[in-house]
Amino acid sequence: MDQKIFLDYMNARLDDMLRDTDRLMRFESLLEKPEETEAALDCVLKLAQDMGMRTGKTPRGDAGYAEIGDGSETVGILVHVDVVGIGDRSKWHHPPFELTRKDGMLWGRGVVDDKGAVIMSLYAMKALLDLNIPLKKNIRLIVGTSEESEWTDMQ
Question: Could you give the CA distance from residue 145 to residue 40 in angstroms, rounded to a whole number?
């Protein structure tokens, strides 16, 4: 695959990726808010389904996956939708639970760890689908909900 084609695809969808990152960041997916964390997971799985990916969720609802490709082997990508607390809200210069773009930077709780990575991974997988890149393996995005606390979702 030509790297330029892939990069052009991703760059053309930057606004969509930022919109979906903002949507995911608006969930206050903290340890003390399990309903918000599960809603964040459901948001990711719905987005993946809408992109044409196979999805699933554990019986406990504490982890899920989005998958593309075919083959007997699987490449796993681990991500999570939970975040650490925000501490003193008055010390935040931007709203913690929404994406803020300022001076070429992205701000908000989870933009780097790990909600931004969740969305970027989904879009990279979508690029492989849309660009008809043949895959000899499955690519599975494994989405956890308690990496920032007890990490009970990946047991």
Answer: 9
Question: Bigger pLDDT: 132 or 151?
Answer: 132
Q: Is residue 114 helix, strand or coil? A: coil
pLDDT beyond 70 at 1: no
* pTM for the model: 0.94
Give burial (CB, 10 Å; 0-12/13-18/19+) of 88. exposed
SS (H, E, C) 42-53: HHHHHHHHHCCC
Q: Using omega within 30 degrees of 0 as the cis cutoff, is the peptide bond preceding 114 cis? A: yes
Kindly list the catalytic residues.
Answer: 82, 147
Q: What is the mean pLDDT of residues 3-23?
A: 96
